Amino acid sequence: MGYKGMAVRDFIFDSQQGKMDLKGFYSGLSRELTRLNKELNIFVSPPGIGGAESGKKGKLAGLPVSVKDCICVKGMQSAAGSRILEGYVPPFDAASVARLRDEGAVVIGKTNQDEFGFGTFSTNSGFKVPKNPHDTSRSAGGSSGGAAALTAALGYPHIALAESTGGSISCPASFCGVVGLTPTYGLVSRYGLIDYTNSVDKIGAIGKCVEDAVLLLSAIAGHDPKDSTCIDAPAKDYTKHLKQDLKGTRIGVPKEYFKDIDESVSKQVWNAIKRMESQGAVYEETSLPMTKHAISTYYIIACAESSTNLAKFCGMRYGASEPISGNFNEYFSSVRSKYFGKEAKRRVLLGTYARMAGYRDQYYLRAMKARTLIISDFKKAFKRFDVLAAPTMPAVAPKFSEISRMSPVENYMMDILTVAPNLAGIPMVSVPCGTAHNMPVGLHIMADHLQEEKAISAASAVEGME
Ligand code: GLN
Q: Which of 172, 237, 411, 449 is most deeply buried (CB count within 10 A of its CB)?
């Protein structure tokens, strides 16, 4: 049957009309998911097509969606890529998943990720490590590596629900040559997300094209009383902003985002900026001077918040447990030592230190002040520009052999371009803009809070033009 290569939009249209043989479609899809999972380690638990009865209605009628492992799906193991949560099956759907199901989407599995989102290459997954479909000796990116690898490799119509704290949507999208859309902080409910850094976490979308990511966003955005940080903004139809004229669009190009970048990556990004110019946009170089403090600010805040979030995983309530012995502390530390990975332990130690009495002012509170300055850098820039354009990542997807030689700090430095916009909570789209070293390169388009339409129209104007 001709489902492979079918555009998501066409699939939804046909499915809404009742023209699809959904049963045949899902069984072909199931086989393909099993095959891809063997090859690329895409899913944490074996894929399963839940609730796939035919005749689904809604804006996403019958559409397969994958869900990042840290987002709770009723009846499916949701372990956030961590061994400590292995066996945890939520009795409820995250708000974003419930909205997708309300629109007729069908959940096909929980995608692999770095444990709790701690990483840039998905090599910190407590399970197998996802691989890049363009070159299996390279990383699919992180932490939503499974989501991006699946989106790139799967021929069937599908969209991935993913999550970003410091770049986990943009990075894997860029490495796998697909589109990653991270919305404004608070636009999508975090209810049911196994949190990493509550003040930074955002649920968003990874799709084969800008339109796919936008279709998913339009279904999940909107106020939710169950998440107190969710913005009470009217729901919008973001699909209206696809392929719009760029005439007069003002693009800022932050010079700090081109420092120490792989030359061939930088070249592809400049070509994309020139393409936007040829469509009527005007660009100008600008500066975001706080960029140099972004990594330290981010990692202090992220570790501080995650170290408190991880306290609840102690072998008593969710997931892994052991026969109870010793006092509370002895029991908790034996479970935590056994089931947390190395990076999770590192972050618990760093974060606990940064917020300890006596060090709090020096680290955590200082990082909070630096974060405010990072936000004002962006706010100033958006007084002059509609969008900012930069490379998404400083290099193409590295080889696993290169990653194993990186120190933790070298690893963190790979996030230099994504952590600041994520800390600021602004919307961003990573869109493929060419290749370097035979691997995809991502262009990062950032916009002011709640201006996702500007990032969407700029991204959709450049896509497919490489
Ligand atoms: N690489 C960053 C980190 O390790 C961001 C990951 C994410 O957004 N979850 O924290």
A: 172
Tokens of 54: 């035919």
Could you list the active site residues? 68, 143, 168
Indicate if ligand 1 lies below 6 Å from the C-beta of 125.
Answer: no
Record the pTM: 0.97
> Which of 63, 234, 21, 245 shows the shortest CA–CA distance to 160?
63
Residue 361, C-beta contacts closer than 8 angstroms, at least 6 positions apart:
none
* Spatial contact of 154 and 36, defined as CB atoms under 8 Å apart: yes
What is the mean pLDDT of each successive set of 10 residues along the chain, which is 466 residues long?
A: 84 90 89 96 84 70 96 96 96 97 94 98 98 98 98 97 98 98 98 97 98 97 97 88 90 97 98 94 98 98 97 90 93 96 97 94 96 98 98 98 96 97 98 98 98 96 80
Give the Å distance between the CA of 166 and the centre of ligand 1: 5
- The architecture that CATH gives domain 8-241 is Alpha-Beta Complex (3.90)
Would you say 172 and 144 are in contact if contact means Cβ atoms under 8 Å apart? Answer: yes
143 close to ligand 1 (CB < 6 Angstrom): yes
Hey, where are the domains in the chain? 8-241
DSSP 237-263: -GGGGTT---TT-EEEEEGGGGTT--H
Do the Cβ atoms of 364 and 355 come closer than 8 Å? yes
Cis peptide bond upstream of 278, omega within 30? no
Strands laid side by side in the 428-436 sheet:
106-111, 64-68, 159-164, 202-207, 179-182, 428-436, 439-447, 387-391, 250-254, 282-286
Q: Looking at the DSSP assignment, which residues form a beta bridge with residue 139?
A: 131
Give the list of residues 6+ apart from residue 181 with CB closer than 8 angstroms, or none: 169, 204, 205, 206, 207, 210, 213, 214, 216, 217, 427, 428, 429, 452, 455, 456
Pairing relationship of beta strands 131-132 and 135-139 according to DSSP bridges: antiparallel
Q: Which atom of ligand 1 is nearest to the CA of 422?
A: 8
Q: Quick one: which of 14, 233, 189, 219 has its CA closest to 102?
A: 219
CA 197 to ligand 1 center in whole angstroms: 10
